[in-house]
C-alpha cells in the first residue's frame, strides 16, 4: 500500500477550516461540489463529521491508523481526532454532514444513539465498509437531508437529527469494520507533534498559560532535532513548526475572545505573552485587526 505520509506528491494541501467559533449548528454538503484536495487537520474542531463516500478513493488516516478507502464507505469522525486525507481518484461522489457539539446536546435521542453505537468514540468502529443495500439507503437519507436543509423552517434541525440517527443505525446493521494499516515513522512524528500541540493549547487558562512555544521546546519534548522536525512538517504540510504554533495560538486566542468575557490582558497572558502590547502586536500582525476589534466584530447587538 502507498505510504500515507507522501502528501508532498500532490499539488494541493488544503487545511480543514477551523470555524468552531462561527454561528452554525449543522451543515449538509454534497462532496461532488467540493474540490477533492489533500489535507491534514491537526487541531481540535468543534464539530462531528459523517463522511459518506459512494465513489472515489484515497488514503485516510485517523490518529495513528491509516485506511485505504475505495468507495462504499462511511466515516464517523470525532472532533478531537487528528485526521488526514490523501486523494487517489480525481473526484469523490458522496455527501458529508458537519454538526456541532452543542447540536448533539440539544437532541438527546441523537446523543443516545451516538453513545450506544460508539462510532465516534471508538476509533476501531469509526470506518465502516458498507454493503450495497446500505449504500443506497444512506444515499437516500442524505438526499432527504439536503431537501430538508433547502426548505428551511423551524423544525429543520430536528428533522436532520432524526436522519442522522437513521444513518448511524443503517451503518451498523451489517457493519464491516476494516482493520487499519500502519503509518510511517515520519507520519508518526507528525502525529505526535500535533498531539502535543493540541494538548498544550487545549489546557490553556488563566492559571496555566501556554508552556511550550518554540520549535526547540517541541523538538526536545519529542526527542527530535529542531531542524528534522521543521523539515518533516514542511515536507508533509507545507508549513514549518513555527507557523503551526502561531496558527494554533491565533485560533485559541479567537476562541477565547468570542467564547469568554476574559479581559484582553488575561487572554494574552494565557497565550504566553507577559505584556499586553506584545499580544496585541502579535494578533494584529497576523490578522490585520486588534484583539479588541476582533471581539467587537462578532459581538451580538444588544
From TrEMBL:
GO terms for molecular function: DNA-binding transcription factor activity; sequence-specific DNA binding. Keywords: DNA-binding, Transcription, Transcription regulation. InterPro entries: AraC-bd, Homeodomain-like_sf, HTH-like, HTH_AraC, Tscrpt_reg_AraC-type_HTH. PROSITE patterns: HTH_ARAC_FAMILY_2. Pfam families: AraC_binding (PF02311), HTH_18 (PF12833). Gene3D superfamilies: Homeodomain-like. Residues 191-297 form the HTH araC/xylS-type domain. The keyword Transcription applies. This is AraC-like DNA-binding protein. It comes from Chitinophaga ginsengisoli. The lineage of its organism: Bacteria, Pseudomonadati, Bacteroidota, Chitinophagia, Chitinophagales.
